[in-house]
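Fold it.
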Amino acid sequence: MSKVHSIQSPLLDIQNLTKYFPVKVPFGSIRGQNRQVKAVNDVSFQLYEGETLGIVGESGCGKSTTGRTILRLLEPTSGKVIYKNRNIFEAGSKEIRTIRQDLQMVFQDPYSSLNPRKRIGHLLEEPLIIHGLGDSKERTESVLDILEKVGLKAEHYYRYPHEFSGGQRQRIGLARALIVNPKVVICDEPVSALDVSIQSQIINLLRNFQESLKLTYLFISHDISVVRYLSNRIGVMYLGNLVEEAPTDTLFKSPLHPYTKALLSSVPLPNPKIKKERIILSGELPSPINPPTGCVFHTRCPYVMDICKKQVPIRRNIEDGHFVSCHLQN
């Protein structure tokens, strides 16, 4: 995959993506009026056609905010997202609507993303209406076709969201994303709220669609085992920063960042007789309102040095496609 990337242009090029949220202060307060939650801080990566890039990290590390900001569901603080030689962040409302036909999203909670007052058939027709695809008859046929492809029945066309199970609602969420024939699908924790058996069904459905429709995925999850199964490459986020990125096999065989090593050490092995060292991180995850100076991980890193406390590590390409931001790798 990395050799192909050396000659292939990225489908999506995310450059220095940053998203800060202002912090509301009590009435009459003066101190801290300019404080911000630094949810995503200077994140850069590329997404290539036909691959799956997994993004993992602890809850609150900025994974979901990254996905939503790429699609401009959240307005960025700074940075660029280049798609077809165009910066999405500079696109007007009409242009961004056209772009979103190619870039779709599957949300973590399908129920909250579905209007409870509308029947499923109408909810699935809405994207086609918005993008001006087909007449009434063609839209109905498209909805019935996508329902069948995601494992639902024609009779479900007339039902409301509350009449479905969690797994069925996620199938509907996936159907809504795929009905406009996108190029890229951002999957934001799509299986985290589902039972294990249902998770495997949705994951296999995602893989089948990727092969049949030539889709490209950005798969966001806190479950590194799921990400390992689906992804060609994996990016590891910590406190709004992308600290390591590598092909999946490379990351699991030779992780370089101390946080990645700790994260992988927490993954249980299928054979209980095989013992491995568990790395327990000390301290709590720092606040994104007031992140540590220098390397954001230095307050919990077992290998911390003086330079880690003062200087932000540079993102380096250690080997072909294996990037890391850590002073230990200088």
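The chain is about 30% helix and 20% strand.
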